[in-house]
Amino acid sequence: MSRPLLRCCGSSTRTRVSSRNYASQAPKARLNLPTDYGKTPLLHHTSKAALANPELSEDVRNGGTTRINLFQSINQAMAHALRTDPKVILFGEDVAFGGVFRCSMNLQTEFGDDRVFNTPLSEQGLVGFAIGAALEGLKPLAEIQFADYVYPAFDQIVNEAAKIRYRYGHNADVYNCGGLVIRMPTGGVGHGALYHSQSPESLFSHVPGFRVVQPRSPSQAKGLLLAALESPDPVIFMEPKILYRAAVEHVPNEPYTLPLSKAEVLKEGKDITMVSYGTPLYVCQNAITAAEKDFGCSVELIDLRTIFPWDRPAILDSVKKTGRCIVVHESMVNQGVGAEVAATVQEHCFLRLEAPVQRVAGLTTHTGLAYEKFHIPDVVRIYDSIKTVIEY
Amino acid sequence: MDFTKPSQLGVIPTYRVMSPEGVLEDPSRPPVGVTDEQVLEWYRNMLTGALASKVSAGEEAVTVGSAAALGRDDVITCQYRETGVFQQRGFTLKDFMSQLMSNRNDPGRGRNMPVHYSGKNKVGAHAIASTLGTQIPHATGAAYALKMEALENPTDPPKVAAAYFGEGAASEGDFHGALNVAATRGCPVLFLCRNNGYAISTPASEQYRGDGIASRGVGYGIETLRVDGTDIFAVYEATREARRKALEDGGRPILLEFMSYRVHHHSTSDDSLAYRTRSEVEAWKGQAYPIARLRKWMENNKLWDDTLEQTTRKEIRSAVLKELVEAEKEKRPALKHVFTDVYAEITEEAEQQREELRRLLRRYPDEYDWHEYDGGIEGL
After folding, report:
1. Which of A79, A216, B192, B260 has the highest CB neighbour number within 10 Å of its CB?
2. Reported ipTM
3. CATH number of B11-326
4. CA angle B37, B42, B48 (to 5 degrees)
């Protein structure tokens, strides 16, 4: 299914391009097969699995679950927030009719035009507006239509929102941008090319002040988004757009929060620490399954969840155990999250390391449409990096 | 096919109450509804602003006059050339000087450059940033929050937000975004533009080609007035009326363009004679200087004379000097504030960096002077 993403579209559009399949696989591939989201261990395929999460409170664990996808879980989280806190407002381009990815479906109908509305086409205008509203005690959910279009708002983000608490000094506890959440669809889809594939998390992590979060699944997104709205710090919430429809799982019905700046060990292992976030985690899991079978090794998979400030102790503890580290992300390898993790790991675990820290990340080039399959980290590259560190 | 030419539409007229000679321009109009006490207070505030900080020279009427017309609980965002706003709304000389000296009494904890005040608690104005224009959409957002608040508490007196900015900052995209969102969402916000003729060295003729900033309001569907910014009564009346209009129909934005002149240099690092003539500066100072004009008014109305002028100036100068000297003697904030207030809680990594800094200060005590910081090395 390759449907070109157009900036303004919400529903599918007829196009001749659908005959060109940029997301096809090589006929004899064994490793580079598309992720089967219906079977991946990273999603909860049963109610029991969803409720077993130790991070959930007892009330939530005693409740039921519903099988929903990522845009539905985000919709649910936002509906809950709008329903229970009159300070929450939601706005952005095309938010009123339901949003180009359906995250805001029915929300204007239920909550009215005062609380859920369209802004004119201006990222700098809407983020500036959000900051002013946050400083008067509202909790603005500001939606940027694609992470690729956040840049006009970059000044407001790094020069204003990120610095407001700091420049208020004495009155910082009263005047800060806590409650401000900027949401944006992020990451590659296989045919998004230059301007519908970007993942700029490291740009926001090179200036302090925001918490930068990327959920990997519907159940994670619900809890992390609700936590973001309660955080005393402003949050950038980056939603992996390819997962909006693809990731379907059981999600607890009750509202709940998950901790920010805490990584999660998805799978324990003893030979290698693999660190990632967002969509690549699924590809990591596929590579791990094949590698553990082929090489007999045991890999520990960790989801950072919050890119910055990140859970350094969790990663360092893991590497002290395994002695090997691989970081995987879609965005360009240079100056990225991998660089930050690798530098920190070698600084604190140098004598323990059995191999250099590997980064499997986007190539140092743009995400050209025809080349996406070669650019974004796939099962082969991750599988191969596991082989490298084992044989080092 | 009739193209609309900008020149067809004519220049937007300038509202004025008081002539340069300090009398009503139109003697038949009703008297200005301002008490003698208020006039004297305004004059003192303008004078204090001028003597304490030269950056707003020529624009004192714009800031003091407009601030006087805003509600006590209205929310204000500004640039850094609005000392008069802070002054009129209750900032003391000690507050000003503490920030200028980055000492431990500065609410901003010494983090910002001089004149970048932090005063929301006291005067309802957002902490100032150096980036131009970023504050304009903040006022739009604040106004929206105030509008929602008014819907929940309809018996409370309603509030507006106001954004101050210069004609240069109005070229930034944030100006456009702010006005457009305010108009489409019906936000009760006043956009107060100080057109002082210069953005550092760039004269207005190189900043825009249209009819000033006022002509832009109409383009966004916003009611607009151009005002003589050196006439404090015009500024006051216009702002008061703009505020009243902004609260109509559930809330809407209003644009005011105050015409004035930046008498002083852009900053202490600028020498403006590099880009303008002394005679230009002198012409404005002589003819239109807002403080001189109000003084003429007060003298015409027997409220002021030379003696009062001398004693008041002397009094203000010595108060300013006293606070300046005191502020200079004060310690800087504690060193731990290098790390605080980035996040609500200091992170684990920042804690480690703090330890590391402590270690370095102890190992190389002669390389750093921590004594001027509150608590010295113990304050880290």
Report:
1. B192
2. 0.94
3. 3.40.50.970
4. 125
